[in-house]
Amino acid sequence: QVQLVESGGGLVQPGGSLRLSCARSGSIFSINAMGWYRQAPGKQRELVAQIRTGGSTNYAESVKGRFTISRDSAKNTVYLQMNSLKPEDTAVYYCNVDGQLPTRFPFSSWGQGTQVTVSS
After folding, report:
1. For 31-88, how does the pLDDT look when each residue is reduced to its tens digit (9 = 90+)?
2. C-alpha distances out from residue 103 to 22, 25, 99, 106, Å
3. Closest CA to 109 of 53, 44, 50, 25
């Protein structure tokens, strides 16, 4: 079973920075993509940033130039560096990993979420 544990959320003032981490445990065969999503109250969950196996990345327009997704394969961890945070970035942030299990069955796992609040 693939498990994801997020950390790094919290309260930050506008213009501040936070770094989220997502550590993966459990056996896998391969990973297709790792990503960060967020869900604000009353809104649908949306993709924030994604990094694919080959290293290509894509970002939501609202975070381009401010957020950076990266990974450390040795630590089975994906990060989201968030700079110049705005109140509209306030949401619960979720980590997601898509790939294949050792059985070659596909999987898509989610973390429990971490709250990010941007407020003065």
Report:
1. 999 999 999 999 999 999 999 998 999 999 999 999 999 999 899 999 999 999 999 9
2. 24, 16, 11, 9
3. 25
